[in-house]
Design a protein that fits this description.
This protein is an alpha+beta fold. It has eleven helices and 20 strands. A hairpin with an 8-residue loop joins strand 6 and strand 7. Bound molecules: zinc ion. The site of zinc ion has 6 residues, from loops.
């Protein structure tokens, strides 16, 4: 039997994620050998019962490092804006959940959900003993990636493209053919890897409670330098000082993902993951079919630069102080998942610093992979697709607005699947109460209208946007007003 708080559990989750990546995914969309790297994220389901030992099953998986700029976003919901692995894995998880909900409503029976009786509201509730665990091969971008490091000369971005800092504190890209810089960087990373524990034990010990919810300069850590994130502070909030060394970033604030060219509107993975800890990871549409939000019980990281305190601050701590001021509807709370790190490294991730030191190594996987892989279980089957720039790989520009160019996890397809399930619930006379009002409005109600009708979810979200997650960028209403033409 696993102990959910143990290192062994973290290793089991990492191991089954890597095995799933290796054995269940084709080669399509994976990084090209020795030249590229990517990030991996997955959702692992744990099933515990009295009769049998706990079983782990990977149910959703995503890879990717890219995010498209504002100018390439679509008003039709047919392009995936954010292709960071964590976001892809979470959307793939939605497809897994949709399939199970569909099975529950259509009398086939779901592996994970019970359907309540009509008197109780016709909603799905997770079966006892089922929990979900979120794995990511790298520390999420944004606030969780800002933490002390050993050295002062080279700064390093976690999970993003590298930058270094001139003495005056301005950024410029690290030139990868710059031999002395690379050598120095290798030594710095090695120092970091080998002496991480020593480093932190020498830092001023801060009580996590003291840090929660407060925006404060990381200089209070007395570290010489920090790991950095390419994600920039949201426009209306506190801004980074960009001071040399440890004063570069402020901490505990919302950040926008970097993108190629035009700026993006996507919040960093740290911010989105923090949101899941109050709203659940199921989103507002799925909420119509569920009794309770679905929370992840643990966040597990692969072997990578990592700091427990920064992860806690970014995903839980900064919300904790403010959550007491909220009036949360029944079943909502600030969920505190366990944060653990595995000692197992993702083979297609960024190169191991020790290998970079090996002069004979041919590995120079400096480039982030352009493609993303989307994978999820759907009953006894699995589904896999590869994306580039938010659409299916291989679609020509001419055909880019055809239905088959859409990813199964883009908003439009998620909405279409939602509508299919709604129709099944109507067919079996089990429609949830919150959807009654749409019964006679057929297909003219928009994605936005259905999202807004998830009352409890929206109540919580509104409060978060006014307080704990103030300044969250909103896509303009125009961008989420689309309908679907076919189901
Ligand atoms: Zn990210």
């Amino acid at each position: 039997m696993f102990n959910y708080k143990s290192k062994e559990f973290a290793d089991e989750i990492a191991d089954c994620s890597y095995k799933n990546y290796k054995n269940c995914l084709t080669c399509k969309g994976k990084p090209r050998n020795n030249r590229e790297w990517t990030l991996l994220a997955s959702v692992v389901m744990a099933m515990e019962s009295h009769e049998s030992p706990i079983k782990l099953k990977v149910v959703a998986m995503g890879t990717g490092t890219k995010c498209i700029g504002q100018s390439k976003m679509s008003k039709e919901g047919d392009i995936l804006n954010d292709s960071h692995a964590e976001i892809i894995a979470r959307r793939a998880f939605l497809r897994f959940l949709f399939h199970e909900i569909k099975s529950a409503y259509s009398n086939n029976g779901s592996e994970i959900f019970h359907l309540q009786s009509p008197e109780d509201g016709n909603l799905c509730v997770l079966k006892p003993g089922i929990t979900f665990h979120f794995f990511t091969s790298q520390t999420p971008c944004g606030d969780a990636s800002i933490f002390p490091k050993m050295t002062t000369t080279i700064s390093d971005c976690i999970g993003e493209e590298c930058k270094r800092v001139k003495p005056n504190g301005t950024d410029y890209p690290l030139l990868l053919n710059d031999e002395p810089v690379l050598k120095k960087r290798k030594i710095d990373i090695l120092k970091y890897t080998d002496h991480l524990q020593t480093s932190f034990s020498n830092l001023e010990q801060k009580n996590i409670e003291q840090l929660t919810g407060k925006t404060q300069s990381i200089q209070s850590f007395h570290a010489e330098d920090i790991f950095r994130t390419g994600a920039k502070c949201v426009p209306k909030g506190e801004q980074d000082n960009h001071a040399p060394g440890a004063g570069y970033h402020c901490i505990g604030v919302l950040r926008i993902k970097p993108g190629r060219g035009c700026r993006t509107l996507s919040l960093s993975c740290s911010d989105k993951m923090a949101r899941w800890n109050i709203l659940g990871c199921q989103g507002s549409l799925l909420n119509h079919f569920l009794v309770k939000p679905i929370y992840f019980d643990s966040f597990i990281l692969g072997k990578c630069p990592f700091n427990q305190e920064a992860m806690y601050r970014a995903l839980i701590g900064r919300l904790k102080e403010k959550v007491g001021l909220l009036s949360l509807p029944e079943n909502y709370h600030l969920h505190e998942p366990i944060i653990l790190q595995s000692c197992l490294k993702f083979p297609d991730g960024r190169e191991d610093p020790k290998n970079l030191m090996d002069k004979n190594s041919k590995n120079e996987n400096h480039d982030p992979c352009n493609t993303s892989i989307i994978w999820y279980r759907s009953g006894n089957e699995s589904f896999e697709e590869v994306s580039v720039n938010g659409r299916r790989q291989g679609v020509t520009h001419k055909n880019s607005h055809k239905v088959y160019s859409r990813l199964s996890i883009c908003s439009k397809e998620i909405f279409a699947e939602f509508r299919r399930i709604m129709n099944i619930s109507v067919k079996f006379n089990k429609i949830p109460l919150s959807l009654y009002k749409f019964l006679n409005k057929d297909s003219h109600s928009t994605y936005h209208a259905y999202k807004m009708a998830a009352n409890n979810y929206q109540k919580v979200w509104l409060q978060l946007r006014k307080g704990a997650l103030k300044n969250w960028t909103q896509k303009s209403r125009e961008q989420i007003q689309f309908c679907i033409e076919e189901i």
